[in-house]
Design a protein that fits this description.
The structure is a single chain. The chain is α+β, with helices and mostly antiparallel strands. It has helices at 2-62, 67-97, 111-121, 123-128, 147-163, 210-215, 222-232, and strands spanning 106-110, 132-137, 142-146, 170-178, 181-188, 236-242, 246-254. The N and C termini lie far apart (68 Å). Helix 3 (111-121) crosses helix 5 and helix 5 (147-163) runs antiparallel to helix 7 (222-232). The structure holds adenosine-5'-diphosphate (ADP). This is Sensor-like histidine kinase SenX3. It is found in: Cell membrane.
């Protein structure tokens, strides 16, 4: 009778509710585990360059009568401290992005400026490897977002393209409109990424080849920043890659159209 009726209607609802609760608990545990891993990783990653700088400082003071050795140690100290600096900056970027919330600092951003600044950011690296960064940007494209975040995202993509490409190769950065969205694409002819790794590369501290990434000064945080920037700016990231042939990353952002009275900051 009525009991069966009630059971039929509430039963599935209740079990669905419980399922959601159970999932939530799992998710909470997952978030907690991710946080714990992150703290452990951060500590480890920060201690490595700090330890190296410390050892190098000791070596310098012991080698003060050998100018050549001092110069060599000093150069390594500089590269370790640059790595440390990048790491700290990326950890700060990531901490700010953690909630994937739309930034309160969203402004109108010119895509051509965004691309120029990102290419500029990797100029020293690209020039020292003889890599030409070729730009092809549709004029007058606008997006609406956090300038600093967007700059960090595009810069990270260009930085990676240069880092994982052979000397004398080309990196192409394009921006155009496709399906009503702005598509900023960074394409290289570098080492590429195996298909099985494509999802994992967006995880924090994940590197396909840790030894190589360390040699290039990689932190394993760049792409997770790109992913969170996309999420925080109503966008997405696409990746295509073929080992040995190259990689293409695309940051997709909603196109912004100016209102009559709106100004570009
Ligand atoms: P990293 O600082 O190590 O470059 P990222 O988060 O930016 O960290 O990238 C994660 C990993 O993805 C890299 O270590 C590298 O293995 C791979 N990767 C990223 N971009 C490229 C690229 N353009 N070509 C080849 N591999 C790449």
């Amino acid at each position: 009778g009525s009991t069966a009726h009630v059971r039929v209607r509430i039963g599935p609802l209740t079990s669905r509710f419980m399922l959601i609760l159970a999932l939530d608990q799992t998710r909470e545990r997952q978030v907690e585990a991710i946080r714990r891993d992150f703290v452990a990783n951060v500590s480890h990653e920060l201690k490595t360059p700090v330890g190296a700088i410390n050892l190098l400082a000791e070596a310098v003071s012991e080698a003060r009568d050998e100018p050549e050795a001092v110069v060599r140690f000093a150069a390594r100290m500089q590269s370790e401290s640059e790595r440390l600096n990048r790491l700290v900056q990326q950890i700060i970027d990531l901490a700010r992005l953690q909630n994937d919330q739309i930034s309160e600092n969203a402004v109108v951003v010119k895509v051509d400026e965004l691309v120029s600044e990102a290419c500029e950011h990797s100029l020293t690296e690209s020039e020292s490897k003889g890599i030409a960064i070729v730009r092809d940007v549709e004029p007058d494209l606008l997006v609406h977002g956090d300038r600093g975040q967007l700059h960090a995202a595009v810069s990270n993509l260009v930085e990676n393209a240069v880092a994982y490409s052979p000397e004398g190769s080309r990196v192409a950065v394009t921006a155009r409109l496709g399906d009503g969205a702005v598509r900023i694409t960074v394409a290289d002819n570098g080492i590429g990424i195996p298909e099985t790794e494509l999802e994992r590369i967006f995880e924090r501290f994940y590197r396909v080849d840790p030894a190589r990434a360390r040699a290039t000064g990689g932190t394993g945080l760049g792409l997770s920043i790109v992913k969170h920037v996309a999420a925080s700016n109503n966008g997405s990231v696409e990746v295509w890659s073929e080992p040995g042939a190259g990689s293409t990353f695309t940051l997709v952002l909603p196109q912004h159209r100016l209102d009559m009275e709106e100004e570009i900051a």
